[in-house]
Design goal:
It catalyses: a di-trans,poly-cis-dolichal + NADP(+) = a di-trans,poly-cis-polyprenal + NADPH + H(+). Keywords: Endoplasmic reticulum, Membrane, NADP, Oxidoreductase, Transmembrane, Transmembrane helix. One of its GO terms (molecular function) is polyprenal reductase activity. The protein is an all-alpha fold and about 210 residues long. It has one domain (about 10-190). It has helices at about 1-5, 15-40, 50-70, 90-115, 145-160, 165-190. The chain is elongated and about 65 Å long. The model has no long low-confidence stretch (mean pLDDT about 90).
């Protein structure tokens, strides 16, 4: 099945790179699941378009297929004696990639805490409003959408670990999607709040 989807008979990454990429994706998905159920404060009137929901499922499926499907034993490379378990490149980039990924993952989490606290009472922690307010602190001092900026960083790390054409296509999708929505959010903030900080960029500090 994977060979049909990827149209590739030779592995594009070593075993170690695929395992690290999958592990980092698992961390990201687990954190997002926790935030959705226990942290984020959604307006009662807010709804998700079914197409967006389906695209999200397809996206993570594609990420897993791109990582696993181009690893040894999953694309026709069955001889265990010839399997590339690791390589010099993966050895050099794995630790920096893991650290950067975890940093960006934590910054996304901190960003969502800030968003949630905007709708809660500071003393009791109870939800008191569903209104939008200007977020401040941490990476918000530089950009309007630090969670989107960190999302780009996360997938940049994954692309470094899994530098295949398939994952590059996924990366371009994430990059274009995050930049577009970040610009839209930035413009909305500026129109909705007259006192919105003028020094903030949309998603890339001092550039965009």
């Amino acid at each position: 099945m994977l060979r049909i989807l990827l149209e590739q008979d030779e592995p594009g990454v070593c075993v170690t790179a695929a395992v690290i990429a999958l592990s980092l994706l698992a961390v990201q998905c687990a954190r997002r699941c926790y935030e959705t159920y226990y942290l984020q404060v959604f307006a009662k009137s807010s709804k998700m378009n079914l197409s967006h929901y389906l695209v999200g499922i397809a996206h993570y499926f594609a990420c897993i297929v791109a990582a696993v499907g181009q690893a040894p034993l999953f694309c026709g490379h069955q001889n265990r004696e010839k399997i590339i378990w690791t390589d010099t490149r993966t050895t050099l980039v794995s630790v920096p990639c893991i650290l950067i990924f975890l940093w960006a993952c934590n910054e996304q989490y901190q960003t969502n805490i800030i968003f949630a606290n905007l709708r809660k009472d500071k003393k009791t922690g109870k939800i008191v409003t569903e209104d939008h307010k200007i977020p401040n602190g941490r990476l918000f001092e530089r950009v309007s959408s630090p969670h989107r900026m960190c999302e780009v960083i996360l997938y940049t790390v994954l692309l470094i670990l899994v530098p295949t054409k398939t994952f590059f296509c996924i990366y371009l999708w994430v990059l274009s999607n995050q930049i577009q929505t970040a610009i839209q959010a930035h413009e909305w903030y500026k129109k909705s709040f007259k006192d919105y900080p003028v020094n903030r960029a949309a998603i890339i500090p001092a550039l965009l």
